[in-house]
Design a protein that fits this description.
Two copies of one chain form a homodimer.
Chain A: E1 4-8, H1 12-24, E2 28-32, H2 35-44, E3 49-53, H3 61-70, E4 79-83, H4 88-96, E5 101-104, H5 109-123, E6 132-134, E7 137-140, E8 145-148, E9 151-153, H6 157-168, E10 173-174, H7 176-184, H8 193-206, E11 215-218, E12 222-225
Parallel strand pairs in A: 1-2, 1-3, 3-4, 4-5
Antiparallel strand pairs in A: 6-7, 7-8, 8-9, 10-12, 11-12
Chain A binds a DNA duplex (30 and 30 nucleotides) through α8.
Chain lengths: ~230, ~230
DNA sequence: GCTGGATGTCATAAATCGGTCATACTGCCG
DNA sequence: CGGCAGTATGACCGATTTATGACATCCAGC
């Protein structure tokens, strides 16, 4: 994990408590007391997750959430709503605003941390830096290392991200366009055929430990990472 | 999943909200503010689903729906009506117009997405990417894999689409023309006899696991996929 | 400035597909 | 028992898709 988190919460006590707990869990936390400060911060930095209190002075959390969701720039950032109310109606409303999850006070820090983890995994599984292992092929995001059957493998930055994405999304075909979106980013202007080249480089890099076959071509559709060599 | 959706909704706020949520669910969305724009768009492109607001400036959603239903070209496209009213009378009216489903505001994005899925499943089962299994023959669209009794089967792109269509529309005869429409697309110019060849290729591909018999010839009519080997 | 790795693009080779045709086969009719 | 319409099959070949090797560019670090 180790995500950058923007916490929007007006009550100082709770803010401190959460900051402490999240920092404890290894996250980088920035706190804002209201929507204005949050927006100001967001102009310069894009966090990995936003924790948003339901009730805020001035613009409410709901409105802020809606506003963020309508802005393409912030659209992909997962939002978790913090709320004291537990009514079902509000829950639905919360989801309507585009929030990814909500959590009702009081909640345990443990629960919050695990929800953050879940939301990160759902939105961008390859963002969490938990090690992944499939068929004796290990990839550790935090140390930025890859090894196959104990043997260290060397791959470039792009190949690393590509493999990371594949390993966190196995058994599924992705078109070149999808891979460009997911691995390169949605704002890049790159030929689709470039994906072929990086697939090749990735295969070459995995060759020494015999894991090249995990990267499979699906003609007419794209590529697939699969433990099933069949 | 991953359907092309035409959204006809005049209120910008709701339009944005829906666009965002549908895009989030992996759909491709085109929005139109009124019936005229919708019709204009439909002339060039056929979406997989149409979301239609009940109340529209100019021609109402109901009238647009009726009009679409009377045109053979648009007849097979599923239509979901969006309405703020909850009266039973209106619901019936909505269904009378030929809409496939209706959904009353306010609704959660989750609900909308699942209704779209349901409607697609009903109208065009092969569009959803859920795995299909019949008589030990499995086909998984998302991983783009086919296996018979555990054994992996290899088929080309066209054979894959053909089998997918058959498996989602079993126990029913399809003429060569229908198959060309459904599997190749309506705008292709191909000899009808070509279907025979691909049927053959599909049978060959299914042979290893003994599933070739599921593809049955109906002399004078076309082909049928049937679990009943009789 | 160099230097070396990393990246994107291109040209070309290789693999595979898809449509058509000619021919063989089948079942059904009188 | 033909004859005939419909179907199966094998082969062919151009078109499309993917793999590969080479190359130009860019950039960080020296």
């Amino acid at each position: 994990m180790a995500a950058n988190i923007l916490l929007v919460e007006d009550e100082p006590g709770i803010q401190e408590l959460l900051k402490f707990n999240l920092a404890q869990a290894g996250h980088q936390v920035t706190a804002a007391g209201d929507a204005e400060h949050a927006l100001k911060f967001l102009k310069s930095t894009l966090p990995d997750v936003i924790l948003l209190d339901w009730m805020l002075p001035g613009m409410s959390g709901i409105d802020l959430c809606k506003r963020l969701r309508s802005d393409e720039r912030y659209q992909p950032i997962p939002i978790i709503m913090l709320t004291a109310r537990g009514e079902e109606r509000d829950k639905v409303l919360g989801l309507d605003t585009g929030a990814d999850d909500y959590i009702t006070k009081p909640f345990s820090p443990r629960e919050l941390v695990s929800r953050i983890k879940a939301v990160l995994r759902r939105r961008a599984p390859q963002m969490t830096d938990e090690p992944v292992e499939i068929n004796n092929l290990k990839l550790d995001p935090s140390s930025h290392r890859v090894s196959g059957r104990g043997q260290a493998l060397e791959l470039g930055p792009t190949e690393f991200r590509l493999l990371h994405f594949f390993m966190t999304h196995p058994e599924r075909v992705y078109s070149r366009a999808q891979l460009l979106d997911q691995v390169w980013g949605d704002d890049v202007f790159v030929e689709e055929r470039t994906v072929d080249v990086h697939i090749r480089r990735l295969r070459l890099a995995l060759e020494p430990s015999g894991h090249a076959e995990l990267i499979q071509t699906v003609r007419g559709s794209g590529y697939r990472f699969s433990a099933d060599v069949g």
